[in-house]
Amino acid sequence: MIPGFSFKVSHRDGESRVGQLSTPHGVIETPAFMPVGTRGSVKAVLPDQLVELGAQIVLSNTYHLHLRPGEETVRRLGGLHPFMGWDGPILTDSGGFQVLSLAELRSIDDSGVRFKSHLDGRDVFLDPEGVLRIQAELGSDIAMVLDHCPPPQEDRDGMRRAMERTILWAERSAQARADLHTHAPMAVFAIQQGGSHEDLRDECTERLLEIDSRVAPFDGFAVGGVSVGEDRDKLLATIPVGVRGLPPARPRYLMGVTGFQEFVHAIGSGIDMFDCVLPTRNARSGYLFRTDGEIVRLKNSQHKDDPNPVDERCDCYTCARFSRGFLHHLLRRGELLSYTLNSIHNLRVFHRLLEDIRGAIRSGTFAEFTQRWR
Q1: Range of the domain at 107
Q2: What is the pTM of this model?
């Protein structure tokens, strides 16, 4: 990895592994979960609370921050870390997911992506070089290259076109990196695409590694285009295919995959990093996770007079202080405190799962841990 960054695997149990990803803003114990702060904040949760919950790194989004407030404003205010009030590492997504999620507002070709801003309708153009420049201005620790994330219903020819474009943009990103002005060291991760087609995934990996050796090395690799609407069997089958062939000496990031069983499955395949909006988005709707994998639907009237916490085994602030009855009341009345307390709980459950997994890998009992979750 570039100076200022390093990755070392300290324990292995089968394909699963515990590692330390060192960055200028701290060391991340992997496997690690990244809470999503798309616009510069994890909704309803303070940075100090994130630390208490076990968060080591957060994720923000290049596309959204580029629209508002703009990378120039963030730079004038000291960069993304002081802007957010977060001292730890930050990974910024490139905007590649918005190629999928905002498909009705964009056009795409090999030059880049043209968006009609969902905020004010103005034209926005993102290309591989510009996306890296924006992330450098933001002051990101880990920048993602721009990729083409296709919808799951895309046919094989469409998946290949998206893969070819992703490879083209990865090479342009690698070339642009040499001349990029950064305000601090910034790692760059490449992204693999290919849908659920094994041969396309394998080919994408091979060609990214060729760019890595011929043009400039990438500091890590991500498996993209998973959990974008495909059925669960395809999702689970794609993860180990995506991992195979990726360099074991560099961190592997599975983008946007949700669910406890999916996490366990992916870690068993050798994944080191995750992100997803599920814990905070579901919290705001009153869907709370438990450490046993069950889900509490807080709106249900059965919780109105319940004096018990959401999860007796959870060590979070919410479970230590408040009953299901109170949380039910906040949610039904639309109190803003509901968002915070519910998000604190869900994020803690996710981080605790990763802590337990790291402990199982260190003790060589990950297989038994996996069996319990099945």
Answers
A1: 6-276
A2: 0.96
